[in-house]
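User: quick one
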Amino acid sequence: MNPPAVKVKSTLAYLRKLFIMPDSPDKFIEFGHELLEMIHDFFQEKGGIHSSITLPELSRIFEQTAVPDEPVLIKDVLAEIRSKIIDHSVKVGSPYYIGHMTSAIPYFMILLEMIIAALNQNQVKIETAKASSFVERELVSWLHRLVFGRTDAFYKRHVQNPKVALGNVTSDGSLANLTALLVAREKAFPPDGIFPGLRMAGVEAAMRHYGYGRAVILVSTRGHYSIKKAAGVLGMGEENVLNIPVDANNRMDVRKLRLRVRRLCRPEEKTRIIAIVGIAGTTETGNVDELHKLGEICRETGAHFHVDACWGGAAMLVDEYRPLFKGIERADSVAVDAHKLLYCPMTMGLVLFRSEKDLQLIRHSSQYVIRRNSVDTGRFTIEGSRPFACLKPWASLKIIGKEGYGLLFRQARKLTGNLKDILDNCGNFETLNVPELFILTYRFIPERVREQLAAWGEALPDTDDKTSVKDMDRKIRKINRLINGLNVKLHKALRRDDTTFVSRTTLESTRYAPQNIVVLRAVLVNPLTSMQTLKEIVSTQNRIGLQLWRDFEPAYERMLKG
Amino acid sequence: MNPPAVKVKSTLAYLRKLFIMPDSPDKFIEFGHELLEMIHDFFQEKGGIHSSITLPELSRIFEQTAVPDEPVLIKDVLAEIRSKIIDHSVKVGSPYYIGHMTSAIPYFMILLEMIIAALNQNQVKIETAKASSFVERELVSWLHRLVFGRTDAFYKRHVQNPKVALGNVTSDGSLANLTALLVAREKAFPPDGIFPGLRMAGVEAAMRHYGYGRAVILVSTRGHYSIKKAAGVLGMGEENVLNIPVDANNRMDVRKLRLRVRRLCRPEEKTRIIAIVGIAGTTETGNVDELHKLGEICRETGAHFHVDACWGGAAMLVDEYRPLFKGIERADSVAVDAHKLLYCPMTMGLVLFRSEKDLQLIRHSSQYVIRRNSVDTGRFTIEGSRPFACLKPWASLKIIGKEGYGLLFRQARKLTGNLKDILDNCGNFETLNVPELFILTYRFIPERVREQLAAWGEALPDTDDKTSVKDMDRKIRKINRLINGLNVKLHKALRRDDTTFVSRTTLESTRYAPQNIVVLRAVLVNPLTSMQTLKEIVSTQNRIGLQLWRDFEPAYERMLKG
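Assistant: Done. Structure below.
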């Protein structure tokens, strides 16, 4: 596939030349130019989103099991990257790729990555990150203020106060959630007399000291899997993440939360509620919990109130979205991802704490870095070495600005509405959530089947005949199972077709609750996606869906009769 | 400082143009070119390593507390980055910067970062990372084989086997260590009958089920702070990381380890040893534990054997360093950083598990990504979204190659020897560790003081007079405290001078053990550092040291007499 690589004779002089600070940047520019053409071609290229190569074929390309012996020229490795990697990468920037939160990014992000790599600062300590430590604190202040809106004096005092941290830049949202729950855990089991706190003594000693038999975290059934994972990592136990059901709009059912909390707070339960987690933009449907109500319950029970706003948080930049987040300003901590609605490349998360005191609970130090009296940001993070990733949102909040993000989100909202209209007009689709933040879930369902289910659904409340209700209900469930199978098949067929991409999940919170419904999921954040793109996507899905339906129709007929 | 920024009118058309896939890459090339000149200037610029600006002055540059309101042109933000950030960044690539593990990187790394950002793959799942998932597995196999050297059949079976993971690419070494200890914790408290395992049930239930009162992790006093931090995060308690003293060569004292293990294993202790952590390249001194002996003790006690090779691991690429790592192939897990001896930019860690079964213990799944039967690498990681960082070591192992890394490490070793010679020849320095992996610790101590301490040190064993021994000992300790103060002052003065940089730490493991000795610490990995550079660094330290000594000398004279 590639021409045989030129043999390289390694010498120290050759290697030294590879290290930066060349006398002239010509060589660099030359490669850079080539590379840009290469990247450009990749994006222009028609063909599939995921490349047509199969996974077994890819396995055979990458099956070298040991470190290669011979060095290779940069240009040969770049050619190899082109043919083996770039050609078989996922075109996440394609306007037809509307299945995940990963999307197109502004091209200046690539320039920023060049700066970050060239400076190679390590955010862990001031000795390896001078201005960049200050940039990080400034960015944290911006977002902290956006979320919590504390007083001007508060921010003036703390924006560059090295004694405290208002938040951490993390490697991603999972680490942001983990950091928040780590702090929540410490707050629930703090030092007390000779007891040095959970962090020092461990979970077992902490529970014993405080006389609890169990410590739990509450989140809705839409909670991101990282919450459960965090509970496992933190030694609280995944089983102790209690999922509260959601309403038809995918928001935590506050009444059920209240009941659950009341039961857990009975003395005989010996249970400490460490945290209640609200979601501001669920991963599957983009809906937002009623944060102000959750906050109230947290204050009543003394639980830490964390908001997972990894997906939706950045929408607070735009005034018209603020009401959705009502109550977030009373949260104890909030997680936001830069690589989602801030349109930064992979990856960067942020966790912000309302109180400047909270991160002190997990402060640590060592002799050689992050000394106790240092100004090093690494004193507060779960990660150790960290890149200067914060430059990306810092610069992009300047370049795109609040105004620009407003335009992008309005466009995303419009596209979400457009897609809903196109699907509704087609007839063979059913939309299954009321989108708040640019995520629409729906499924393929031939018109007559959809109408039949709707007719039964309308008839049900008026029917007195219990046998008939039971029968209709059984039929609805049976047909939904059939349509579930159809949508799984459709999703797989769309992956094979590969000209468009949406993702797939299973929801219990649709109009058919509590039955699990397989849904297609579109995330509409790419500003290069147009009305025309969406029409093509739906038309492809409809065409393939109808083809597949032929295999399902006989079973459907039998169900109607049976 | 900057010219007033041009006012930008945001429109969707303007914003769309910022997103990649431009019709021609001209604009990009233009900015890219400018940027490279900017970066180039930064590295060529003489002046200080950390820039002379004070931290309070920097605070005033970055004191905007809210998200800026108005958008700004890319070129204006780049100019701002230049004057505010690049000019005040730490020149970690400078040959005179020999204080931390952060160093110069080969320039092709910047090209690779461009590719990574442009492709914007998210390694969490195959739908957002096609070829890149295979690259990651291939890289993991390379390093796994390097460390564990299992059979060819083993690697052929597993290199691209999506059912297992031989290791994870992590955001950094701290996360690599955390992942290893998470697995170790699960192995110590696995599912058992109706008990679903620690991860599901939590630490308290696990200890209760297995009848333990305590679970501990053992590491030497040279252990990286991330081990303690991990024990805190995992809910085991930082207090339960037990530090075993080191010998004069900064290696864990195996005799003391054995004694400690024996005591801990007494039934009345009710203690589970979760893991023993060996270090392959301590952060402070670069020395390597006797891994084969540690492994033996682990096998006897059933503890997980983790090796923190974040610093030294990559040295295994070179045959002459393999003997240092003897026994690592029997470890259960090994952590290695790419941004250290693999010369990648910030940041990327790796954790490798000898058994393909170990990572199954922390496998997780969800409905919308990382489905149970998927091939997604995200099923095994603590992080969620992850960048395509593995491209950097993958490409650099091809470009630099084993041979090239060999040359780089040989050069590093030579420089370490050179620095020791220069310091010894100067007279006013004392070196304090026997370097194995490119880290030298030493201190400034005027020749006559050094000789006096040496004379007493030699006399001590021959002296029968107990009063005299006590007196000499007291004097040595007093003078060491004085010299400690001198070296703290010297380090601060060097930071102010800022033409050179070494770091500083405190060691109890020098020839003055157990007294704490303040040491300067040089990490000699930059291939652009030369003999001449080192001479200048030492001459600067000697000059400033002698100046400072004047203030300390009177106290020294009093001590001699007193």
